C-alpha cells in the first residue's frame, strides 16, 4: 500500500524528471515535502504538494474563509495512485489560479447545500470525470485542467532515498528552530541528537 510520504516523494522526483533541481522548504508545523522550491536555469518556482490516496484533491481555508497556501505558490503538484497500476503514481501540475477558480465553484456548491459549513471543513474535488470528490460530479475531472502530468513507478529507489535524507534534515532543522524559540536562544546554540533503541 502506498503512503502519503511516498506520494510526496514522487512529486519531487517528477519535478526532477522535468529538469528542475528541488529543495524542501522547511517551516514550523509543515510536513516535510508539502512545500518545495524547484529551480531550472533562471526559473525558480515555489511548489505546494497535495497528495491523495483516493484521487480527490482537498484544499483548506483559513479563519477568514480564504484558501490556505495555494494563492501564495507558483504551482501546485498533485500526486495520487495511478488508475490502472497499483505500483505507479500519477503526478499532475496545476496553475494555482485555475485550482482556485475550480475550488471556488466547489465551495459555492457546498455552501448552497450546507449554509453553515465550517471554515475548517476541507473542500474536495475529484481528479477523474464522473466521480464525486466531495463536491459534485459537474465539478469533477480536475485532471483535465492540469498543465502537465507524469506516471512514475513506485519501484524507483531514488524516490525514497533522496526524499528521506532531505526530510530528516528538514525535520532536525525545524526541531532546532522551535526549541530555540521556546527557550529564547539563538538556533546556533541548539544541538539535537536522536537515538533509535533497537
Task: Summarize the structure in words.
- With 198 residues, the chain is an alpha+beta fold.
- It has a single domain (4-155), classed as Trna Endonuclease, Chain: A, domain 1, CATH 3.40.1350.
- Helix content is 30%, strand content 24%.
- It has three helices and eight strands; from the N terminus they run αββββββαββα.
- It has helices at residues 4-17, 96-113, 157-183, and strands at 21-24, 35-40, 43-51, 56-59, 75-81, 88-94, 123-126, 148-153.
- The strands form two sheets. A six-stranded mixed sheet has the order 1-2-3-5-6-8. Strands 4-7 form a two-stranded antiparallel ribbon.
- α1 crosses α3.
- It is globular, with a radius of gyration of 18 Å.
- The two termini are 25 Å apart.
- The relative contact order is 0.16.
- Residues 133-138 have low confidence and may be disordered.
Tell me the overall shape: globular
Mean pLDDT: 84
Low-pLDDT runs of 5+ residues are 133-138
Q: What's the N-to-C terminus distance?
A: 25 Å
Determine the strand fraction and express it as a percent band. Answer: 15-25%
Q: How many discrete structural domains?
A: 1
Spatial order of strands in the largest sheet? 1-2-3-5-6-8
Q: What is the name of the CATH class?
A: Alpha Beta
List the total number of helices. Answer: 3
- Strand/helix succession: HEEEEEEHEEH
Largest sheet: 6 strands, mixed
Estimate the helix proportion, in percent: 25-40%
Any idea what the radius of gyration is?
Answer: 18 Å
CATH architecture: 3-Layer(aba) Sandwich
Q: Report the structural category.
A: alpha+beta
CATH fold type:
Trna Endonuclease, Chain: A, domain 1
Total strand segments: 8
Amino acid at each position: 500500500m502506498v503512503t502519503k510520504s511516498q506520494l510526496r516523494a514522487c512529486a519531487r522526483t517528477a519535478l526532477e524528471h522535468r529538469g528542475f533541481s528541488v529543495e524542501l522548504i522547511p517551516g514550523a508545523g509543515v510536513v516535510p515535502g508539502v512545500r518545495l522550491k524547484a529551480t531550472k536555469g533562471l526559473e525558480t518556482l515555489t511548489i505546494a504538494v497535495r497528495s491523495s490516496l483516493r484521487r480527490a484533491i482537498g484544499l483548506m481555508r483559513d479563519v477568514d474563509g480564504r484558501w490556505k497556501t495555494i494563492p501564495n505558490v507558483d504551482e501546485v503538484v498533485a500526486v495520487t495512485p495511478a488508475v490502472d497500476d497499483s505500483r505507479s503514481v500519477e503526478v499532475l501540475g496545476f496553475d494555482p489560479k485555475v485550482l482556485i477558480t475550480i475550488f471556488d465553484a466547489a465551495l459555492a456548491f457546498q455552501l448552497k447545500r450546507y449554509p453553515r459549513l465550517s471554515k475548517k471543513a476541507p473542500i474536495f474535488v475529484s481528479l477523474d470525470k464522473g466521480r464525486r470528490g466531495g463536491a459534485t460530479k459537474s465539478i469533477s475531472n480536475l485532471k483535465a485542467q492540469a498543465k502537465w502530468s507524469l506516471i512514475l513507478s513506485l519501484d524507483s529507489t531514488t524516490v525514497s532515498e533522496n526524499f528521506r535524507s532531505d526530510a530528516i534534515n528538514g525535520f532536525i532543522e525545524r526541531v532546532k528552530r522551535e526549541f530555540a524559540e521556546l527557550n529564547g536562544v539563538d538556533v546556533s546554540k541548539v544541538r539535537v541528537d536522536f537515538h533509535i533503541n533497537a
